[in-house]
Every structure is written in C-alpha cells, then in structure tokens.
C-alpha cells in the first residue's frame, strides 16, 4: 500500500495541491462560546426528530479547543492546503452589525497556525451555518440575506485577507437551497419549493456580492472561487434524456450559467413557471453574479440515473427508497431517480470514479479557460478500531475501502488531466470524522478517526496512506510516513 500511495503521488501533475477539508459546524463544537450566536443548524439539530439520534454540533470534534493538535495532524499528513469554513455566527452573532473579535481571533489563529506549518489556508465563507436571526428575518429566499452576506464577507476579508490563499464564497448552494427549503432534510427544514428557487437566486447573488466585497478589502493575491456539488446524471431509457435535462438544469446549470456565463437557463425558468415567475431576479443581478473566478471548486461523491416516471411503477428516490415526503427538485415532479448499481458507501451512495472524470471533462469542454479543483471527495464506511501492536497507541483502523475510494478517484483525476483538464488539486473529505448533518455522528468520513467519548484522534490507515501520497511528491528520495503521528502515546 505504501508503494501504491507513492506511485499515485508520482502520477499527479507538478504543483497539484493535496489537501483535506472540513466545515465549521461539523468539527468546531464550542457552539456557545466566545460570543458565537445561534445558527440554523443549532436550531435544526436541537429540534427532535431532525437528526439521527438527536445529535448536534454542540461539541462535535471539539476542534475549537484542539486546534494545535489538529494542526499538528495536518502537518504530519503533509497537506499542501487545508480547506475549512468560517462560522458566520461567530463573526456576526445575529448576522448583522459589528464584528465579534473573539470569533475572528479563532480563525486568525487557525490561519497563522497553517502558515507556520507551510499549509495553504483555503477558506469558505459559507458552509451552511446561517445565523438564526437572518433565517428569522426570512432566510435565503430573501434578498436581504445576500446583502448581509456581503457585509460579512468584507469583515472576514479585512481580517484574514492578507493571508488566506484561496477564498470560496459558498459551499454547495444546491444543498442550502433545495435541502434547506424544498426537501427540508437540512436546516432550516422548510418545505417550500418556490422559496427554494428564490434561495437559489439569492445564494447566487450572495456569491457575486461576496466576491465584490472580498476584492475591495483583500490585500493579498488569493484565488477566488465557489464550490458546487455538481451532479453527474445519466439517462435511463427513452425518457432519460428529458429527465436529465430537467435535473441537470436544477442541479448544475442554474448555478454554472449565472456564475460563469451570466443569466439563468431559459428551460429551468420554464420548467418552474408553475411555482414562481422569477421576479426576484432584478436588473443588473446577472452582472453581479457573473464575477470572474480563478478556479471552480467541485465536490463529487457519486452518480445518479433518471427517467420520467411512467405513473404506474412505484416511484424511486435516489437512495432506492420509496418516494415519500418532499422532493428537493422543484418543478421536476415527473423525474424518477433509479437505484444505482453498487458498490456503495455507508451513505448508500454508489461508488463510480468514472463519474468524476466525466464531470471534470465536461466542465473543461464547457469552460476551457476555467481551472478546476476537487474541493471534496471521500467516503463514509463503518470503520472499526482494532488492536495493533505495531501502531503507536496500540490501535489501528484498517479502512482499505476508503483507501481504494480515494486511490480510484485520484486515478480518475489523472485521467481527466491526461485529457487536458486544468485540474489544480484534490481535497479529501474529510480530515476527521465529524457531524454528518442529518446523519449526526453515525457516518464516518474521516481519514482520522474521532472517538466521540474521549475526543481522541486516531489516524486510520487511509491517513497513513495519504501521508505517504503527499510525501511521494516532495521527497522522491525516500522518507516515510512510518514515523508515528503526533499526539499518540
Ligand atoms: C458534502 O455534501 C458536504 O459539503 C459536506 O459537508 C458533507 O459532510 C459531505 O458532502 C458528505 O455528505 O441522496 O443519492 O441523491 C454532499 C451532499 C451528496 C448531496 C450526494 C446530494 C446526492 C446523493 N450531497 N447527494 S442522493
């Protein structure tokens, strides 16, 4: 496995960035400390029945208090870059008004700690933890939320803008809009398809306004980006192409087109005309949203297969369950998501590295000038801790399945590069096990295990593999990740 990791590392293009990713609400904990205000995820996870086991991010991985230990882990992993998100309610407890200095101090320490270890800080402004007060005022379906986001971006940019290497405005606005406001599976848990479409627009607007605000105040020379969870959707049967058109519009083109080309796809507006007339889009918004970006972040996990429901068969959802409850796809009522062939991760998502290659190549063909970055890719598996006398601490997690997942997706990245795709890097999701949203702590995505009783970090085999991978490029002479990770007795 060590040799294999080294081989995988040597295949990557010169300067390819290897990193790991997390998000504030999923790892930080310290939910009520240093002036942090409540976010929609505090409210949602605190509402009975919304998350697995009633889990919340109150403590999470306690990353807020274990920053130095986690930074040392990242250094041991040999990360080129670390992708984290900033909790808006730490910076502005009610989403508006003056900055909370103690909140800014935490990210200041994080950024400095990364730079001291030679790791490039990649900061996301919004990874789903909207200040609750802004949701109380209407949330993402309202224009005011996008305007507030620009003020927040300016505050953060002013404080960290001399040191952050890459800024990302939003993480996966698809999830914020459709899971937050249509299916209700994510905070704030609303099930209003028309509001979800208004949220799409105001998230896009926030992206544009946020970039403008950052550019006004940042003194460094960072890359600017957004991260999308673009869907790879394959057609099934005669009606497949039409079903792909509808879902590709709602999932992909409704973000890509305004951000990169300007304006909304006419077919999406037509498909959703029964829900909204899109009058929330004002003159000039298109120009604001279409700000130049230096790189597009792509989060990729699995693929989907669709056709139009024939009205007779039992309609399926993506996960193969019966279609119950509210759909995250406004206006695509006839689309049926078919179960995908395996193998699957613990999320029930199919493993399909070819989908990543396909997606990167498609994006490159559509936007040949736009560099790409895989800002998330990874897998949940039900890992087990076993005794292992050869390891520091006497325990190990043998997650061969995760190693294979990452290896095969990196190989897909290489194939895309061979086809001319300007792919700049890859971030594994995630640095450590964390709060997996509606699934609480039941799903483990980390390359480092978190023991939620003791909050101890135990590097899994995939972490050793990743450390070997990063070293393969810097140190072709040898050297090894064999030496024990930090903080292990
Ligand atoms: C990302 O979301 C998030 O950015 C991150 O915070 C999260 O922890 C991580 O991934 C793992 O979930 O239900 O079959 O239609 C990924 C979100 C992944 C959304 C797959 C929709 C479609 C699968 N998504 N997905 S299906």
TrEMBL record:
<keyword id="KW-0378">Hydrolase</keyword>
<dbReference type="InterPro" id="IPR017853">
    <property type="entry name" value="GH"/>
</dbReference>
<keyword id="KW-0136">Cellulose degradation</keyword>
<dbReference type="Pfam" id="PF00232">
    <property type="entry name" value="Glyco_hydro_1"/>
</dbReference>
<keyword id="KW-0119">Carbohydrate metabolism</keyword>
<dbReference type="InterPro" id="IPR017736">
    <property type="entry name" value="Glyco_hydro_1_beta-glucosidase"/>
</dbReference>
<dbReference type="InterPro" id="IPR001360">
    <property type="entry name" value="Glyco_hydro_1"/>
</dbReference>
<keyword id="KW-0624">Polysaccharide degradation</keyword>
<keyword id="KW-0326">Glycosidase</keyword>
<protein>
    <recommendedName>
        <fullName>Beta-glucosidase</fullName>
        <ecNumber>3.2.1.21</ecNumber>
    </recommendedName>
</protein>
<comment type="similarity">
    <text>Belongs to the glycosyl hydrolase 1 family.</text>
</comment>
